[in-house]
Every structure is written in structure tokens, then in C-alpha cells.
């Protein structure tokens, strides 16, 4: 009799653990969705971290930052380390380090035609499309558009509205 009670208790505990694990997984998904929404609503801004400060300030991502991320982002394919590239960008501009990493990964994904998951500004997407078209021609632009469309699909899977990004893709596909 006592063994059956322990088995029942153990099964109940395992059931509760499974429920907690499912809740943690759901919380993580929700957190990722919220971070993606925050990134997409910031548009051309990023959070400027300050050590030992709870204040948050916003710095607009400049054309210089966008251009520098493109130039350095191409080096990822040559084996250069993203964090080191981001450090260089931050030293030369006032760009937030996390934002630089996000923009670098986006450039690399566009060069490879692969999905990227963190949002960058629509202005940056247009600039990257223009620079890729000028440097790599229509084949390069096709890869970049493919990457951005995969990004759109990824964001839609979280229920986000990304019609403006899709419009940019349509516009640049018409140029090919």
C-alpha cells in the first residue's frame, strides 16, 4: 500500500514538473516575442546601455552606422568575429554594441540568403539592398531579398505585422 502512495505522489510531482517546464517554455517564447516587438517598434533607434545606471537613452541609428555595419558585416564571411567587428563600430561611432551585433548579423544573413531573427530598421534594409545591388548585382540582391522574406516569415510566426518590410522586398524585386 505504501509503495502505491509513493508512486502516486511521484507521478503527481512529475506531472507538476512537466507543467512548470511547459510554463517556462511559454514564458521564454513570450519574452522573445516581446523583444522582437520592442526591436521592431524602435525603428531607427536602439537602447544605449550605460554601466551602473538604470536610465535608458535612445540613439538614432545614423547613416554612418548603417554603412559601417554593412562594410564590416561583409567580413563575417571571411571568418572575422562579430563581437570584435561590433567593438570596432562602437569605437568609431556611438552605436550601441548590441545593435551593432544585430545589424552585422542581418548583413551577413542577407549576403548568404539566410534568415535573421532580430529586427533592423526599414531604412537600413533599403540601404543594404542598394549597396548589395551595386556591389553584387541582381544575384546578390536576390539573396538579400530572400533573407528579408525569411525574416518576415519568422516575425509573422509571432503574429507581427510586417507589411512595410514586405513592400520594400516587392519594390526591390521589381528592380531585378
Q: Runs with pLDDT <50, length 5+? A: 42-56
Shape: elongated
Mean pLDDT comes to 85
Rg result: 21 Å
Structural class: mainly alpha
β-sheet strand percentage: under 5%
Strand order of the largest sheet: 1-2
Q: How many helical elements?
A: 6
Number of strands: 2
Can you give the helix content as a percent range? over 70%
Order of helices and strands: HEEHHHHH
| Largest sheet features | 2 strands, antiparallel
Cα-to-Cα separation, first versus last residue: 76 Å
Give a written overview of the molecule.
This protein is mainly alpha-helical. Helices cover 71% and strands 5% of the residues. The chain contains six helices and two strands. It has helices at 2-42, 63-73, 82-92, 97-112, 122-156, 163-173, and strands spanning 45-48, 57-60. Strands 1-2 form a two-stranded antiparallel ribbon. The longest helix has 41 residues, at 2-42. The radius of gyration is 21 Å and the shape is elongated. The model is unreliable at 42-56 (pLDDT under 50).
Topology:
Elements: H1 2-42, E1 45-48, E2 57-60, H2 63-73, H3 82-92, H4 97-112, H5 122-156, H6 163-173
Antiparallel strand pairs: 1-2
Helix pairs in contact: 2-3, 2-4, 2-5, 3-4, 4-5, 5-6
Question: What's a quick, concise take on this entry?
Answer:
The chain is mainly α and 176 residues long. Helices cover 71% and strands 5% of the residues.
Descriptors:
5% strand, mainly alpha, two-stranded antiparallel ribbon, elongated
Amino acid at each position: 500500500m505504501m509503495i502505491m502512495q509513493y508512486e502516486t505522489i511521484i507521478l503527481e510531482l512529475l506531472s507538476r514538473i512537466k507543467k512548470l517546464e511547459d510554463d517556462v517554455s511559454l514564458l521564454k517564447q513570450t519574452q522573445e516575442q516581446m523583444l522582437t516587438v520592442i526591436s521592431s517598434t524602435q525603428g531607427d533607434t536602439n537602447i544605449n546601455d550605460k554601466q551602473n545606471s538604470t536610465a535608458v537613452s535612445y540613439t538614432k541609428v545614423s547613416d554612418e552606422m548603417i554603412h559601417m555595419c554593412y562594410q564590416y558585416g561583409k567580413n563575417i564571411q571571411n571568418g572575422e568575429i562579430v563581437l570584435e567587428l561590433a567593438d570596432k563600430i562602437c569605437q568609431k561611432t556611438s552605436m550601441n554594441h548590441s545593435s551593432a551585433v544585430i545589424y552585422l548579423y542581418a548583413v551577413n544573413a542577407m549576403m548568404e540568403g539566410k534568415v535573421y531573427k532580430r529586427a533592423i530598421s526599414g531604412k537600413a534594409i533599403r540601404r543594404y539592398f542598394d549597396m548589395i545591388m551595386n556591389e553584387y548585382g541582381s544575384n546578390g540582391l536576390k539573396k538579400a531579398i530572400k533573407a528579408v522574406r525569411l525574416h518576415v516569415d519568422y516575425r509573422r510566426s509571432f503574429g507581427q505585422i510586417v507589411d512595410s518590410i514586405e513592400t520594400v522586398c516587392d519594390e526591390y524585386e521589381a528592380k531585378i
